[in-house]
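Structure first, sequence second, as always.
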């Protein structure tokens, strides 16, 4: 009789949020959930936002690029607590706004703002392709990022003549524990797991950077090619896996954690008979 659901499969959760919820879904499908957080707590750095927010409230910008809904909400919350929420919102309404991802589009709707450029597939590449139709000569651009800098986006804007590019990061990513990385790499090498669920691109970056520093990137790629299924919650995470050379991956049509688990189940149903 064939394997059903995730029976006998060991599924790694690489995230740090909603791990209990994901574990429950995996276990209901007969799998074993293992949490190996490759993304440390995302810390809110509110004290670092006061100066850029006050400057934005006073001077505004020609373009504002919002890359995450959570980060956009956090910026507005910080502005409200600083007593400059109305000023910041007014400056946003005066600027041309570009958004990345459906959660950022949802923020715009809640805030009563309209985007000049909108990229719902959530990738930085898609955002830049949409922005390429516009000129930035002499323009002041204000970018909200999440966790990590985006040098490719800054370079894209500067090459098109932007006079000033200001990046604001309301959150920062804390690297995973070295012990967690070493444990997971050992499990991967020993074929002790079947699937890794990546819920953000930064988890992919931390794993591959660890492998590259240890000289094990080729081995890790072979593991993903032959033994372990890489599962990405959405296009941005899948794009990160592709950047490192991962070719076989599972990506759900809907960017939700529950949908990711169901996509993994369907993958194994289609490849029934593969060794767990």
């Amino acid at each position: 009789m064939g394997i059903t659901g995730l029976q006998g499969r060991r599924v790694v959760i690489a995230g740090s949020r909603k791990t209990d919820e994901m574990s429950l879904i995996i276990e209901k499908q007969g799998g074993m959930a293992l949490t190996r957080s490759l993304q440390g707590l995302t810390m809110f750095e509110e004290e670092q936002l006061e100066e850029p927010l006050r400057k934005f409230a006073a001077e505004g910008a020609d373009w504002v690029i919002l890359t995450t809904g959570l980060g956009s909400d956090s910026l507005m919350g910080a502005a409200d607590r600083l007593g400059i929420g109305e000023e910041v919102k007014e400056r946003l309404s005066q600027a041309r706004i570009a958004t990345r991802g459906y959660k950022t589009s949802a923020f715009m709707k809640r805030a009563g703002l309209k985007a000049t450029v909108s990229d719902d597939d959530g990738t930085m590449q898609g955002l830049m392709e949409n922005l390429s139709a516009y000129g930035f000569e002499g323009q002041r651009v204000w970018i909200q990022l999440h966790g990590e800098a985006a040098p490719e986006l800054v370079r894209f804007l500067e090459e098109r003549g932007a006079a000033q590019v200001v990046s604001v990061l309301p959150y920062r990513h804390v690297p995973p524990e070295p012990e967690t990385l070493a444990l997971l790499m050992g499990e991967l090498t020993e074929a002790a797991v079947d699937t890794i669920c990546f819920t953000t691109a930064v988890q992919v970056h931390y794993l591959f950077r660890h492998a590259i520093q240890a000289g094990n990137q080729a081995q890790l790629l072979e593991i993903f090619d032959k033994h372990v299924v890489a599962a990405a919650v959405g296009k941005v995470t899948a794009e990160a896996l592709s950047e490192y050379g991962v070719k076989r991956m599972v990506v759900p049509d809907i960017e939700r954690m529950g949908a990711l688990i169901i996509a993994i189940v369907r993958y194994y149903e289609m490849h029934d008979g593969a060794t767990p």
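Margin note: The chain has a mean pLDDT of 90.
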